[in-house]
Q: What sequence folds into this?
């Protein structure tokens, strides 16, 4: 009985191992990578804070250089994909949102810690998410927002009008943020014909059709418009 | 008709909110200039206010005229930075007078113009000159229609008293007799006339948790807008004002202010007792302010004592205070309540006794506001005032204001 059981277990283990190896091999063969460059806009000079009256003070850091979000539109979401449970942070420090541009999957919870010694606020009147977190301190638990609708959410601070931030909420797991040179690499994509988009800002969303072949590495550049 | 028009505009704009937002955002971005390299940067911004006031009796505070009123206003701000050390501000307004309907046929003015030098980037020292809001108190830092949760100013900044800057009263009795008159807004003075955009120079800065400001101006903080420009008075009797603030943490701010200077205008000189000049009659004002905020709550409070030296009468003292709170109900909707009080001291009545020199007054202001977008805001205010007098002025005030910010 014991021998029979051991034999059965060995067979099962061998089958499972084989299945895992085969799955990984197939996945490696079908997964697609897209890489390239997005032509980014020129960095803008840091905003000047208009402190019109005495008693309104504070110094600030320069804003983050421009970047873009590259994402694949129309690709099927893997069947075993679970809703996003990620928690990411956008820090307010030096009177800037950091990162100034964030891409998240729908359902992601974003925390907004205050990294300055004075009050900050975060609010948005964007259609896909309307919220106001009030005024909060550096040392308190960072307030958070769950972005449950795809769309572009513009972030502002009521206290420091020059502060700007953007959360791009996507209904796809296939996205990446470029570096400050516009370089990106998006891997683990499914094969098929889709649209590859580069989001620079609300007025500039570039797109190119892509035919993703299993196992291929495709180069797609988004030249300046 | 005007009220209906305002309500119609409100409804239309609220419906078009998102479309307007995109247009206003583009305007906002277009109204700025920057030189190559960013040394020179200039930005034009503005506020368009449409205000209607319904008053059951005589208009209170600094609302002029004798009936309901419609008060549109365009405010333009030109903020310019030249390198790290120089900043200038020009504020231009077109409206029906600095105070609503004080010039019913229309008026246009430069209400503020200043040049500021900041030699060091740490903000510890700034020097500025021009025509600008007083450093006294804390309310002036949030007095524009976008930031003020109410439509009117606190009582201390708008309630006119029986003190005049234009002539000495003939006798104590004549002075006390003013209590039975309705407010003479072209002659009488409040403790502080709104933001008091008087002319002069100031130094201010922030050193760790402390901030300070001292100003040397051409006119008193109670002076009327007609004398705020640098050439309006001859600088023989300037006013010095100062404020010291402490911010122990982000939530709290405490301040103490003081102001001293002559308040009578040159035209009053002829009516003064022999041997006395304009400099003999001063306004001395001491104030304290406190503010606290956290999450959806903001609270401000100020308390002031002022002494006006009144020719032929003596010292007319008054205490005035307000406490104000604002609560954000939703991301767009806020509500605010403000309690205002003013108490007047006694002066000799000329017959061996003493009497209160003006009417004590209390007022509660309530307001709700809605920010449709980052550029559009609507506010509705109801105020109830009670004066310790045989008659009331503006006992009930209902006001609506719609603001476009760009």
A:
């Amino acid at each position: 009985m014991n021998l029979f059981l051991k034999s059965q277990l060995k067979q099962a283990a061998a089958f499972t191992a084989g299945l895992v190896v085969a799955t990984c091999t197939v996945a490696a063969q079908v997964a697609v990578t897209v890489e390239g460059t997005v032509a980014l806009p020129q960095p803008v000079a840091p905003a000047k804070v208009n402190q019109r009256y005495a008693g309104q003070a504070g110094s600030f850091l320069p804003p983050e250089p421009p970047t873009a979000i590259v994402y694949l539109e129309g690709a099927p979401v893997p069947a075993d994909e679970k809703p996003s449970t990620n928690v990411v942070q956008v820090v307010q420090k030096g009177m800037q949102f950091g990162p100034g541009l964030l891409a998240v999957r729908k359902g992601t919870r974003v925390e907004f810690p205050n990294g300055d010694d004075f009050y900050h606020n975060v609010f948005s009147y964007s259609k896909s998410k309307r919220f106001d977190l009030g005024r909060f301190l550096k040392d308190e638990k960072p307030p958070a927002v769950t972005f449950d609708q795809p769309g572009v959410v513009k972030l502002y601070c009521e206290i420091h009008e020059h502060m700007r931030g953007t959360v791009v909420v996507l209904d796809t797991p296939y996205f990446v943020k470029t570096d400050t040179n516009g370089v990106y690499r998006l891997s683990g994509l499914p094969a098929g014909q889709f649209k590859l988009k580069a989001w620079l800002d609300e007025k500039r969303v570039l797109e190119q059709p892509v035919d993703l072949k299993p196992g291929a590495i495709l180069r797609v550049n988004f030249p300046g418009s | 008709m005007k009220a209906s028009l305002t309500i119609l505009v409100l409804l239309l704009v609220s419906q078009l909110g998102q479309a307007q937002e995109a247009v206003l955002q583009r305007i906002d971005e277009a109204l700025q200039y920057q030189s190559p390299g960013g040394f020179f940067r200039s930005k034009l911004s503005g506020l368009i206010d449409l205000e209607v006031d319904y008053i059951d009796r005589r208009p209170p505070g600094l609302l002029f005229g004798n009936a309901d009123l419609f008060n549109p206003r365009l405010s333009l701000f030109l903020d310019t930075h030249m390198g790290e050390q120089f900043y200038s501000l020009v504020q231009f307004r077109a409206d029906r007078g600095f105070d609503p309907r004080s010039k019913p046929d229309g008026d246009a003015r430069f209400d503020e113009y200043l040049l500021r030098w900041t030699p060091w980037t740490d903000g510890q020292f700034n020097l500025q000159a021009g025509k600008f809001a007083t450093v006294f108190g804390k309310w002036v830092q949030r007095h524009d229609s976008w930031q003020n949760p109410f439509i009117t100013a606190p009582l201390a900044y708008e309630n006119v008293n029986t003190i005049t800057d234009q002539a000495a009263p003939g006798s104590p009795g004549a002075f006390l007799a003013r209590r039975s008159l309705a407010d003479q807004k072209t002659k009488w003075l409040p403790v502080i006339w709104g933001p008091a955009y008087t002319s002069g120079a100031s130094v201010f800065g922030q050193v760790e948790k402390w901030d300070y400001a001292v100003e040397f101006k051409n006119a008193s903080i109670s002076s009327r807008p007609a004398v705020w420009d640098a050439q309006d008075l001859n600088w023989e009797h300037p006013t010095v004002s100062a404020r010291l603030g402490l911010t122990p943490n982000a939530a709290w701010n405490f301040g103490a202010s003081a102001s001293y200077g002559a308040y009578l205008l040159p035209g009053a000189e002829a009516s003064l007792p022999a041997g006395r000049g304009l400099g003999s009659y001063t306004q001395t004002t001491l104030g304290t302010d406190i503010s606290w905020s956290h999450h959806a709550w903001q609270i401000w409070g100020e308390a002031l004592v002022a002494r006006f030296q009144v020719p032929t009468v003596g010292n007319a003292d008054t205490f005035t205070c307000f406490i104000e709170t604002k609560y954000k109900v939703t991301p767009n909707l806020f509500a605010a309540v403000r309690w205002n009080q003013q108490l007047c001291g006694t002066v000799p009545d000329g017959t061996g006794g003493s009497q209160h020199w003006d009417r004590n007054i209390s007022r509660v202001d309530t307001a709700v506001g809605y920010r449709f977008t980052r550029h559009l805001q609507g506010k509705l205010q109801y105020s109830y005032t009670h004066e310790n007098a045989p008659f009331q002025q503006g006992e009930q005030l209902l006001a609506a204001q719609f603001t476009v910010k760009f």
About this structure: Chain A has one domain: 27-39+60-75+82-219.
